[in-house]
Design goal:
The protein starts with a helix and ends in a 12-residue tail after the last helix. It contains three helices and no strands. By secondary structure, it is mostly helical. It has one domain.
Length: 56
């Protein structure tokens, strides 16, 4: 896999092709697969565990 293939998985590089991004893993850019999985989780599966017992 080359750098162009890797960068294509990160939405930020679509509008900032020459961006060089240094940060910690805590706030690093996420690949689109992770963003999609988190979106699904927050839309369809998120609940406050332990507050009550009921189905979504």
């Amino acid at each position: 896999m080359n750098l162009k293939d890797i960068k294509s998985q990160f939405p930020i590089f679509k509008s900032n092709k020459n961006l060089i991004y240094f940060d910690t893993a805590n706030s690093a850019q996420k690949p689109i697969q992770v963003i999609d999985a988190l979106e699904d989780f927050y839309k369809n599966h998120y609940a406050n565990i332990g507050r009550a017992v009921y189905g979504l």
